[in-house]
Design brief:
Layout (H helix, E strand, L loop, with lengths): L3 H4 L1 H13 L24 E7 L10 E6 L10 E6 L6 E6 L5 E6 L5 E5 L8 E6 L2 H5 L2 E10 L2 E9 L8 E6 L4 E6 L22 E4 L4 E4 L5 H4 L3 H5 L11 E6 L4 E7 L8 E2 L7 E6 L4 E7 L5 E8 L9 E6 L5 E6 L4 E6 L7 E7 L7 E3 L5 E5 L16 E7 L4 E8 L7 E8 L13
Antiparallel strand pairs: 1-2, 1-28, 2-3, 4-5, 5-6, 6-7, 8-9, 9-10, 10-11, 12-13, 13-14, 14-15, 16-17, 17-18, 18-19, 20-21, 21-22, 22-23, 24-25, 25-26, 26-27
Length: about 450
Amino acid sequence: MQNVLSKARTTIGALILSLVGHGAPVVADETCQSPYMTPIKGQEEFVYVWTLGMDGVGDESDKLVTIDVRPDSETYGKVISTYSVGGQHEAHHSGLSDDRRTLWAGTLDDSQLYLFDIATDPAKPRLKKHITDFVEASGGATGPHTVFALPGRVLITATSNNRDHGGRSALVEYTNDGDYVATYWIPTPDNMQGATGKEFADGYNYDVRVLPRKNIMLTSSWTGWSNYMRDSNEVLQDAEAMKRWGNSMTIWNLHTRQPLKVLQVPGAPLEVRWALGEDHNYAFTHASLTSKLWLIYQDDKGEWQAKDVLTVGDPENPTFPGSIVITNDDRYLWWQGIADGTTRLIDVSDPFHPKEIYKKKIGAQINMGSSSWDGSRIYFTSSALSKWDRDDEQAEQFLRAYTWDGKELKQSFSVDFVAEGLGRAHQMRFGAHSLYSDVQTAQR
């Protein structure tokens, strides 16, 4: 097929605007990690890329790929280890435990979790646990996505369910050792669990982030297995399928996991990024289907509200943003467009009036962006989903590293994941020997 993000752009743009207009329910890095986890504020040494297997490429299996990003290393910018898990499971997102010793990697198709030890030898992760009963343990949640660190625990957003394979789903809690703890279902109109905003509730789920000093947790929404595991051209040109996208975000009590309020945020709001300032009580998200930036904020009465603050690019030809990255001073936000392969820098210093100030084309398609804590280095990967990636003459799969001098992005290196026999490069996490001073690693 020709990639949908170019082929059906005009048609789907009109359909999206029509759906949203009529109220119908309509893809990180050190600055965006859990506040319970110590960030790497110096030089990251390794980038771990959770990678989808591709037919005819290498061993064709999903794998964790480790790339050396130490500037003084003889293998700088090179692949130094891989760990194949066998088969193609729609490898998607990964996350770290609060002590950064374990990288959790999930699969959207068959709901498996792979726990990698990245502390014993950060240059060569090893599998230490494989969880295959996520669906059974959780009570029917499927498609593990975000892995978010809590003290001694991880909170996992599930994107679908095993009943109708739609977008209604849950948060699932585990211990750091990989033992199931609890399931928290997203509010629906027939089960609000005490939350307000019944008219906006759809039960959909995607990402989670927390603001501990306010005892607040925020979740976003996306779509279910029946959409994301289907050919993109079919979905985006199917009016019924296009009604099955999230239209909500939910405010929760962090400590009790009690939902408090459902907010209306049309267009499949994806990643949640809280501002980092001590008096900044707001977060951003980006609506995948409308290319809108939304602000979630606390008003003068202490109530949480949602406001559309910017449309990025041409609304009739959405950029289909894959990820957003906030800087550590809350002044800027990087926006990655899947459709146009372009990253944009948005000035969010006034969160109610953001503006685009810079853009650069990275490739034919990009999805994830991950930034160093100081913002001087940013990495981009290409894959969105196996059935949503380009497969035309412009198709490519890569990790590309850039430096940012405050004015321009300059490429440091690029790894061609197809030429290297690796597959589709999706999401990144960082590692460094310095995190594990109590461990005698094999590299020292």
